[in-house]
Amino acid sequence: MAVSSARVGLLLALAVFFWQSIPSAAKVFTVGDSIGWTVLNSPNYTAWTFSKTFRVGDSIVFEYNKQFHNVLEVKKADYTACNNDSALATYTTGNDSIILKTAGHHYYICGVPGHCLAGQKVDILVDKGKAVALAPSPSAPSSSAAPSISPPFSSSNPPTSSSLAHAPSVGARLMLSVTLVVGVVTTCFAVLLVGF
Ligand SMILES: *[C@@H]1O[C@H](CO)[C@@H](O)[C@H](O)[C@H]1NC(C)=O
Ligand SMILES: *[C@@H]1O[C@H](CO)[C@@H](O)[C@H](O)[C@H]1NC(C)=O
Ligand SMILES: *[C@@H]1O[C@H](CO)[C@@H](O)[C@H](O)[C@H]1NC(C)=O
Ligand SMILES: [Cu+2]
């Protein structure tokens, strides 16, 4: 009996393994949520990033009044020093959607004098090697109810276009897992009957 239990456990582990290799859907994060990108009431964007997991393929959206703010992607030193004169990228539309294409830190500040020093800065740490499928489009944010399961393999390589293929819907994932579980149970019975 102990041997059978071990076998069942192994098969269940395999099912979980396959389930995890199905990429989860990309998420869209609005920086600051409903508060947006601002200096009013000194939002703490470090606190905002806590409890969030950013993955390659996810997007962040900066929403702000473009008369008063902008978004600069900067290097770490410029993030720390609030230096606005060597931006890696500049965004000024007031509704900037940025796809997180690489793992590691992505530093953003507002370039308007004083704003970064007042806390309008955010360090987005993107998980290593945990790519998700691309969001359908920034205008159609993926459901936050989507399970956030990461693939089991770790890789420091940026995802290729194939790994950014559309993710199966939650329904498809459910169907797949049901199929897997049915397969596992059937296999277990077969194993028990043959008694091998
Ligand atoms: C922002 O929040 C983080 C995490 O809660 C905290 O460590 C940090 O001191 C806060 N910063 C400010 C300026 O309050
Ligand atoms: C950077 O700061 C200077 C003042 O120090 C300001 O005139 C300029 O507009 C800022 N640049 C950006 C891109 O916000
Ligand atoms: C930003 O753009 C998206 C579509 O790209 C739209 O759904 C959203 O309402 C816009 N937000 C603001 C504050 O304009
Ligand atoms: Cu600003």
Automatic annotation (TrEMBL):
The chain crosses the membrane at residues 174-194. It comes from the Eukaryota. Residues 1-26 form the signal peptide. Residues 138-161 are annotated as: Disordered. One of its GO terms (molecular function) is electron transfer activity. Residues 27-128 form the Phytocyanin domain. The keyword Nuclease does not apply. One of its GO terms (cellular component) is plasma membrane. Keywords: Copper, Glycoprotein, Membrane, Metal-binding, Signal, Transmembrane, Transmembrane helix. PROSITE patterns: COPPER_BLUE, PHYTOCYANIN. PANTHER family: BLUE COPPER PROTEIN, OS07G0570600 PROTEIN. This is Phytocyanin domain-containing protein.
